[in-house]
Automatic annotation (TrEMBL):
Underlying gene: UGA1
Protein name: 4-aminobutyrate aminotransferase
GO molecular function (one): 4-aminobutyrate:2-oxoglutarate transaminase activity
GO cellular component, one term: mitochondrion
Record CDD domains: OAT_like
Domain of life: Eukaryota
The organism's taxonomic lineage, starting at the top: Eukaryota, Fungi, Dikarya, Ascomycota, Pezizomycotina
Swiss-Prot/TrEMBL catalytic activity: 4-aminobutanoate + 2-oxoglutarate = succinate semialdehyde + L-glutamate
Listed cofactors: pyridoxal 5'-phosphate
Species the sequence originates in: Monascus purpureus (Red mold)
Length: 497
C-alpha cells in the first residue's frame, strides 16, 4: 500500500510541474469561469511534427509485439492533465476525442487519484473476485452508492460487465431468455426435454430462431451477438458469421432542423412504420429492439424525441423489449445524465446498457423477470470488476461536486453557437451541423474529413471522426467555455490553411 501511495504521489506531481511550463497569459481564459483544473495549461503546445521522432521510435518498437495499425498517437499519461493529452515529444493537445468518448473527468483527476489510494481499492485490485460466486460483503454497498445511484429512472437493478460490447451481448441474452420464459408460461415453467436436447446441437426449440432488431448505420459492438446488430462499416463485420437478424432504417434528417420540420417528421414516421412491419413480419421473431440515442460510430445521426417515443410505443404494443444503448451517450455527455432523458418517455426503456465514461460496463433493468429463471444462465468468471465500480463511484462524486452535467449542457450551448457562426462563414467546411441542445455531443460533415483530423493535430487539437464524413466532438465533462474558445479558434485556423 505504501508503494501505491508513493507511486500516486509521483504521478500527481508530474502534471503539476508540466503545466507550469505551458502556462501563459491567455485572452481566452474567462475571469468569471473557474477552471476545474487550476494547474491545467491555458493553451495547447505543439513543438514537433506529429508524430515526432520519439513517438515514431516508440511506435516502431511497439509494432514488433503489437498491431499498431489503428494507432492514433502514443500517449504520455504522466504528463497528460485535465483536457490535455501529451505525447512523448513534448506536444500537448487539447483532447476533444477523449479516448473515443470514454474519459469523463479529465486526465489525472486528483479526486480519482484519491480513490485509487484507498485500502478499499487495493483490496479490490489484488483480490479480484469471481462476482457470481464470491462477491465481497461490500459489493451491495458499492453498487448502491455508485452504479445504482446513477441508474436511469424506473430501473433499479444492474448486471455488471466488462465492456460495451459485453454489456450489449448480455442484454440480448436477457431479452431472449425473457421471451422464451414468457412462451413457456413464466419463470416457474421448467425446460422441456426437447429444449434440453435440441440446444446441444444448436437446434430449436432449445436454440430458438429469435432476433434483435437494430438500425442501419448502428454500432453496438464487435462480439458475435453485438456484431450482428452493428451496421456502420463493413470492416467491422467482414468474415464473421452473423445471425439472421433484421435492420430498420434510421431517420436521415435534413439540416437545419427548423427549415425541414415537416420532411423530417415524415421521414421518422416512415422509419417507425418499417420497424413495426419488421416486428410483425420478420421470419425470426423479434425479441427486442436496440437503438442508440445518437448513432455515434455510424456518423452521429440524430432523431427527435418523438421518434424514440414512437419506438417505445411500438415495442410496448407488440410486447418487444426496448434496449437503449447508452455506451457512448451516457454519463452526462449530452447535457443530461442519460441521453434518453431528453425523450420524456411515458415508460422507461426495459434495458439501458452503459460503458465508456462510466469506466465500468453493464446494463440496467427494472423488471425482475429479466433475471434468468435459473443460476449460471447469465454468468462468467468476472461479471464486471469491483475496482471499476469504485472508480465509477468516484466519477459520480466528481460529477455531483462540480455540477458537470449542467456544465456540459451550458458549455455545449456555447460551443454550438460558436460553430453556427463558423458554419455561416465557412458553409462548405461545416455542413449539417447537429447536436443543438445535446451538450457537447456535436458533429458536422466536412469534405476531406480525414485531412481535417490530421490538420487538427498540427494546431494542437486531438479530434475524431465518425461515419464517412463526420467530425465528432467528444470532450470530457470538464470541458469549459474557455476550452471551447480555444477549439473554435483552431477550427477556424484549419479552415484558413
Amino acid at each position: 500500500m505504501a508503494s501505491l501511495l508513493r507511486s500516486s504521489a509521483r504521478l500527481r506531481s508530474v502534471p503539476r510541474l508540466s503545466a507550469v511550463r505551458f502556462l501563459s497569459t491567455s485572452p481566452h481564459l474567462r475571469a468569471a469561469e473557474k477552471p476545474f483544473f487550476p494547474d491545467e495549461p491555458t493553451a495547447p503546445k505543439v513543438v514537433t511534427a506529429i508524430p515526432g521522432p520519439k513517438n515514431q521510435q516508440a511506435a516502431a518498437e511497439l509494432d514488433q509485439v503489437f498491431d499498431i495499425r489503428s494507432l492514433n498517437m502514443l500517449t504520455d499519461y504522466t504528463h497528460s492533465i485535465g483536457n490535455y493529452i501529451a505525447d512523448l515529444d513534448g506536444n500537448l493537445l487539447l483532447d476533444v476525442y477523449a479516448q473515443i468518448a470514454s474519459i469523463p473527468v479529465g486526465y489525472n483527476n486528483p479526486n480519482l487519484l484519491k480513490v485509487v489510494q484507498t485500502p478499499e481499492m487495493a483490496n479490490a485490485l489484488i483480490n479480484r473476485p469471481a462476482l457470481g460466486n464470491f462477491p465481497s460483503s461490500e459489493w451491495a454497498g458499492i453498487l448502491k452508492t455508485g452504479l445504482l445511484k446513477a441508474a436511469p429512472k424506473g430501473l433499479n437493478q444492474v448486471f455488471t460487465a466488462m465492456a460495451g460490447s459485453d454489456a450489449n451481448e448480455t442484454a440480448y441474452k436477457a431479452a431472449f431468455m425473457y421471451r422464451r420464459q414468457l412462451e413457456r408460461g413464466g419463470p416457474d415453467a421448467d425446460f422441456s426435454e426437447s429444449d434440453l436436447t435440441s440446444t446441444m446441437v444448436n437446434q430449436s426449440p432449445g436454440s430458438p430462431h429469435l432476433s434483435i432488431l437494430s438500425f442501419k448505420k448502428a454500432f453496438h459492438g464487435r462480439l458475435f451477438g453485438s456484431l450482428s446488430t452493428t451496421r456502420s462499416k463493413p470492416i467491422h463485420k467482414l468474415d464473421i458469421p452473423a445471425f439472421d437478424w433484421p435492420q430498420a432504417p434510421f431517420p436521415s434528417l435534413k439540416y437545419p432542423l427548423e427549415e425541414h420540420a415537416q420532411e423530417n417528421a415524415q421521414e421518422e414516421q416512415r422509419c417507425l412504420a418499417e420497424v413495426e412491419r419488421l416486428i410483425k413480419e420478420f421470419h425470426n421473431p423479434v425479441a427486442a429492439v436496440v437503438v442508440e440515442p445518437i448513432q455515434s460510430e455510424g456518423g452521429d445521426n440524430h432523431a427527435s424525441p418523438a421518434f424514440f417515443q414512437g419506438l417505445r410505443d411500438i415495442t410496448k404494443k407488440h410486447n418487444v423489449l426496448f434496449i437503449v444503448d447508452e455506451v457512448q451517450t451516457g454519463v452526462g455527455a449530452t447535457g443530461k445524465f442519460w441521453a434518453h432523458d431528453h425523450w420524456n418517455l411515458t415508460s422507461p426503456p426495459d434495458i439501458v446498457t452503459f460503458s465508456k465514461k462510466a469506466q465500468a460496463a453493464g446494463y440496467y433493468y427494472g423488471n425482475p423477470a429479466l433475471r434468468p429463471n435459473k443460476p449460471y444462465r447469465q454468468f462468467n468468471t468476472w461479471m464486471g470488476d469491483p475496482a471499476r465500480a469504485l472508480i465509477f463511484r468516484g466519477i459520480l462524486q466528481e460529477i455531483e461536486r462540480l455540477n458537470l452535467v449542467e456544465n456540459t449542457a451550458a458549455t455545449g450551448d456555447y460551443l454550438y453557437a460558436g460553430l453556427e457562426r463558423l458554419a455561416k462563414q465557412y458553409p462548405e467546411a461545416i455542413q449539417n451541423l447537429r447536436g443543438k441542445g445535446q451538450g457537447t455531443f456535436v458533429a458536422w460533415d466536412t469534405p476531406k474529413r480525414d485531412e481535417f483530423l490530421a490538420q487538427a493535430k498540427t494546431v494542437g487539437v486531438n479530434i475524431g471522426g465518425s461515419g464517412a464524413n463526420a467530425v465528432r466532438l467528444r470532450p470530457m465533462l470538464v470541458f469549459q467555455k474557455h476550452h471551447a474558445d480555444l477549439l473554435l479558434e483552431r477550427i477556424e485556423k484549419i479552415f484558413k490553411l
